[in-house]
């Protein structure tokens, strides 16, 4: 049986602290999330639009995407109750107000995602009771961390395409609502690794196996403050490092004929450049 990956929470905020941390990073978060819709504004342009001013050369639809994402982030950081399917509908109603067939309503017809190279993914039809049960079950599971719950909900919702449009934006904000409530930091895929993420999400759509993209997102896309780093996680890493060092030492002691590279005692060794 394959070993289950444990996604320990990297940060330990209070919910109020995590809300403030998100608000302090609204511009960066909106700037990244807008890329889901192909918006290519610079960070300063995104800030200018969020401040209510126009930017020459930026299409109206891109401006609306940015403004609605800002409103979505404002909404989730103002809610103190746990995430529900009703709240997810409201998030979608906000962020997809200009492009969904029926903003805030679950998809009741066929949908699909273009994966490129004539590859097309068609998600299953949506059953509201099943989606509500899935969310409740994930959030109530005492065996999983906040970060694990958030990543699972995010990628499940993206693949299911539960809304008519704006699914990646809605799923990302919904997942971050879970992160904020649990004080676990934020999920934000760095733009300099966007190509890697796109390959992983396309593969996930094809296979329905989210293990790789969850692991990658955990390693690359969880953000917080060092002052709120989870000391328990650091302790685990320190123990792992010490265990590896001991294993290496034991191996060296048991195999004295093997010399390390560039060993000054080995006359035949030469520095590598």
Automatic annotation (TrEMBL):
Pfam families: Fic. Residues 83-219 form the Fido domain. Residues 248-273 are annotated as: Disordered. It comes from the Bacteria. InterPro entries: Fido (IPR003812), Fido-like_dom_sf (IPR036597). This is Filamentation induced by cAMP protein Fic. It comes from Lentilactobacillus parakefiri.
């Amino acid at each position: 049986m394959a070993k289950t990956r444990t996604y320990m929470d990297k940060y330990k905020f209070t919910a109020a602290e995590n809300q403030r941390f998100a608000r302090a990073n609204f511009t960066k978060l909106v700037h990244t999330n807008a890329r889901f819709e192909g918006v290519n504004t610079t960070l300063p342009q995104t800030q200018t639009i969020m401040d209510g001013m126009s930017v020459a050369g930026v299409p109206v639809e891109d401006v609306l995407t940015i403004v609605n994402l800002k409103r979505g982030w404002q909404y989730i950081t103002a809610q103190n109750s746990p995430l529900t399917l009703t709240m997810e509908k409201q998030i979608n109603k906000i962020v997809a107000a200009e492009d969904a067939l029926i903003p805030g309503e679950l998809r009741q017809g066929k949908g699909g995602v273009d994966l490129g190279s004539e590859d097309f993914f068609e998600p299953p039809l949506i059953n509201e009771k099943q989606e509500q049960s899935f969310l409740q079950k994930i959030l109530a599971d005492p065996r999983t961390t906040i970060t694990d719950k958030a990543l699972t909900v995010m990628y499940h919702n993206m693949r299911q395409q539960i809304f008519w449009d704006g699914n990646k934006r809605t799923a990302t904000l919904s997942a971050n609502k879970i992160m904020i409530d649990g004080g676990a930091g934020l999920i934000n895929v760095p733009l300099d690794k966007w190509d890697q993420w796109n390959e992983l999400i396309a593969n996930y759509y094809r296979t329905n196996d989210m293990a790789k993209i969850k692991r990658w997102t955990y390693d690359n896309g969880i953000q917080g403050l060092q002052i709120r780093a989870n000391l328990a996680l650091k302790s685990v890493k320190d123990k792992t490092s010490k265990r590896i060092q001991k294993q290496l030492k034991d191996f060296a002691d048991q195999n004295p004929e093997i010399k390390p590279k560039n060993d000054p005692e080995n006359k035949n060794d030469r520095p590598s450049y």
